[in-house]
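[SOLVED] Predicted holo structure with coenzyme A

Edit: marking solved, answer below. Original request kept for reference. I posted the sequence and ligand SMILES and asked for the 3D complex as structure tokens.
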Amino acid sequence: MANEKGKSPKESAVETRYLLMPSQANPQGTAFGGAIVAWIDMVAAMVAQRHCGKEVVTAGIDSLVFMEPVRIGDHVVLKASINYVGQSSMEVGVQVSREDPYGGNRVIATTAHLTFVALDENKKPTVVPPILPETEQEKKRYENARLRVKARKELLKKIS
Ligand SMILES: CC(C)(COP(=O)(O)OP(=O)(O)OC[C@H]1O[C@@H](n2cnc3c(N)ncnc32)[C@H](O)[C@@H]1OP(=O)(O)O)[C@@H](O)C(=O)NCCC(=O)NCCS
């Protein structure tokens, strides 16, 4: 149940699926990476919106890895949930699997972490509710995301 103290990742999680059509494929008959990224960005944005109840923008996409090709006709299953929040930013993790439309066999194809920032009515970053990780997996994802955010900020300091 959402409350002032925060929300669990389950409350904002999104799972959906698409059928990979020829218009979303490259000349090899496998998914065009940009089509997959557009779906990732969309489902992750919905998670961020559901978590904070505000307008959000994508600030960055990190650790996007294409591990397995997705072929025309495959079902593309996207699972997204919030990992971590800062003041106004939220990290959302997305796992994309290709699923055999007939046998149901599922293989993880792509993973990514995205950062969204919540905006107020003046389009300025605004505070988001905390998250309440409950399961061991949610707690691990929270801690891993915290380390990624810390590492990104330290790197920015070093190279700027
Ligand atoms: C994202 C955006 C709102 C950040 O604005 P800003 O004035 O730099 O805001 P701040 O420096 O106050 O940072 C706000 C938060 O964003 C985070 N942030 C900013 N740039 C980031 C980046 N590249 N990656 C991850 N997080 C980022 C900050 O760490 C901060 O997090 P916190 O509040 O949890 O500590 C602004 O850069 C923007 O509007 N970008 C364009 C967004 C867009 O058009 N997206 C669609 C792209 S196709």
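OP edit: The CA atoms of residues 118 and 124 lie 8 Å apart. Thanks to everyone who chimed in.
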